[in-house]
TrEMBL record:
This is Interferon-related developmental regulator 1. Belongs to the IFRD family. SUPFAM superfamilies: ARM repeat. Residues 1-37 are annotated as: Disordered. Residues 360-413 form the Interferon-related developmental regulator C-terminal domain. Residues 19-315 form the Interferon-related developmental regulator N-terminal domain. It comes from the Eukaryota. GO terms for biological process: cell differentiation. The keyword RNA-binding does not apply. Keywords: Developmental protein, Differentiation. Interacts with PSIP1/LEDGF.
Amino acid sequence: GGQPRNVQPFSDEDASIETMSHCSGFSDPASFTEDGPEVDEEATQEDLEYKLKGFIDLTLDKSAKTRQAALESLKSAFASKILYEFIMERRMTLTDSIERCIKKGKSDEQCAAAGLACLLCVQMGSGIESEEIFKTLGPVLKKIVCDGTASIQARQACATCLGVCCFIVTDDITELYSTMECLENIFTKAYQRDRETNGVSSTHNTVLHISALLAWTLLLTICPMNEVKKKIEMHLHKLPSLLSCDDLNMRIAAGETLALLFELARETDADFFYEDMELLTEKLRALATDGNKHRAKVDKRKQRSVFRDVLRAVEERDFPTEMVKFGPERMYIDCWVKKQTYDTFKEILGSGMQYHLQSNDFLRNVFELGPPVMLDAATLKTMKISRFERHLYNSAAFKARTKARSKCRDKRADVGEFF
């Protein structure tokens, strides 16, 4: 019976509730197409856009926790839905919010903002609008990447964002070279440490060096061939030193980069010759058969799997073709350049990768998939299995997997280590 209160439309609690209740729906594109009664798609889209407008407003909130929650919610939505028209109308507002959060936010907020910037460019694709976004955010990202006082996590996220956004939007060769130089200045410090300590030790900077190296490698795949030759001459004899790093992810990043450099070198020159080939293959073979007991089994298996492929690429010019399924389509990853590109965007989009491969014009152009395949409702319905059939299939697969594992776990059987 008291007087009515003025209630804020989005408080800290509301932001966290909104984040929890809607991110789960955004995280899996299949959640929009589950079996059930038909819904009014136009009303659902309006409802989604209304919530997203609220999240965009919350990126300007005074509370850092609220801003971060809003950024994460927008990331989840952008990763799982194509929202080109909605974003086009608000791209400058979003760009300003991201810039402000990267400049003034703390570590977690900067990471979330950098991640959102990647997804914003993925949604917009390569065009004038994306170039405007990168012109605004590029200098800010470079400043954080090179700022020794910023947190390592923020610098790592900004390095990845810088590489991905430059890959998507830039047609300016000068900007491409400038961005690559910025990233080189970061990961080449790992070479210097190797010279100083005769072995690359694991430090808190390693994660930054890995992100910078992978972002640089992504940009190398779109460089002109004369520039590729220069970069190969500059780095091919230095990269093997990173294979001695204590950090597994650094060893893997260096190995995969080496495989990609060899692939590009042989494309530019069929008679390409590497002087220290014997020493390099010896190192790669040691990593592909590593049995050190002080390393975790999971790490050893992952390392051996990766370096078997790297060794085949360097020695035999071979690549183990992988197939990616998305909807009714299939894509074959048949080279290291394609693998590097796919892995990068999969890391950014997460579970939304398949959806974007089906619907995102930019990604389809990158992987040469052609225009999106348009399927009518009747065709989609015939392709979709019911929940009951899905349940039966999962049950059968579970039983078969359990039986196979039981045999492997039988202590009476003398079984070695399984790969």
